[in-house]
Amino acid sequence: MKIQAKKSLGQNFLVDKNIIDVILNLKEIKNKSILEVGPGTGNLTINLLKKKPKKFFVIEKDNYLVTLLKKKFNEEIIIINDDILQIDENKLCNDKLIVFGNLPYNISTEILCKWILNLDNNKIWFSSLILMFQKEVADRIISKYNNSNYGRLSVISNWKLNIKKIIDIKPNSFYPKPKIESTLLFFSPKKNFLKIQNAKNLEKITRIFFRHRRKMLRKPFNQLFKGDSKILSKLNLDLNLRPQNIDCETYYNLTREYENLKS
């Protein structure tokens, strides 16, 4: 019997065995603690279990699917019946988690940004993230500057994480079949990244600069820094450029300068 997917929860269940095999081969999980977000009907779950993880958490919001998963897996997995956006992942486990997720399309960027912006610099709760996104979202995540896909999501995603594109996935790998392609990405924490006092400042800087992405940097820079020539010189910034023409590091440095002004 086919399970009826709920559009309101952005559900598209992965059913392609070849793609499941690609995911399984990305990371050794034997005796490791893992987390699966949105396990759906358990097609990936059942294969992950065969790899003998130490602890296996799943987060599923859909009450009907939770009942189905309990029947299917009994006590082999720890099911958290809650909204992923409301959970504090730091409290799930003392081990660093390997995270798998066919993320709900409608909140995938919200989930990723929540994870990145709430990371404790001294205790990152995961060792890797193996996540599926709409292809157009993935293209924005991995985009480099001087590209039309480059924007806030690119800057925020690449702050603390190394990101590798694994594979594009056709719609017929899912049930129900979505109208768009998906992409599998692999994330791992960076050992070195520019420390920012408050992640909300990075959100603010990128929001103001990318608000008018087709316009020159002069207006947002003057709004935030009152035309401070010392900062311009220090960061070698050309105000005739547009937001998509400056690299991620410059945005992190701009955030640091903004924090220095406010302190």
Number of domains: 2
Top CATH class of the largest domain: Alpha Beta
Helix content range of the residues, please? 25-40%
* End-to-end Cα distance: 60 Å
What is the element string, with H for helices and E for strands? EHEHEHEEHEHHEEEHHHH
| CATH architecture label of the largest domain | 3-Layer(aba) Sandwich
Main sheet: strands, sense, barrel: 7 strands, mixed
Task: Determine Rg (CA atoms, Å).
Answer: 20 Å
- Determine the strand fraction and express it as a percent band: 15-25%
Protein structure class: alpha/beta
Your description of this structure?
It is a single chain. This protein has helices spanning 17-24, 43-49, 63-73, 108-117, 135-142, 152-160, 199-210, 218-225, 229-235, 248-262, and strands at residues 13-14, 33-37, 55-59, 78-80, 97-102, 126-134, 161-169, 174-175, 182-189. The chain has 263 residues and is of the alpha/beta class. It has a seven-stranded mixed β-sheet. A two-stranded antiparallel sheet has the order 1-8. Helix 6 packs across helix 10 (248-262) and helix 7 packs across helix 10 (248-262). The model is unreliable at 4-10 (pLDDT under 50).
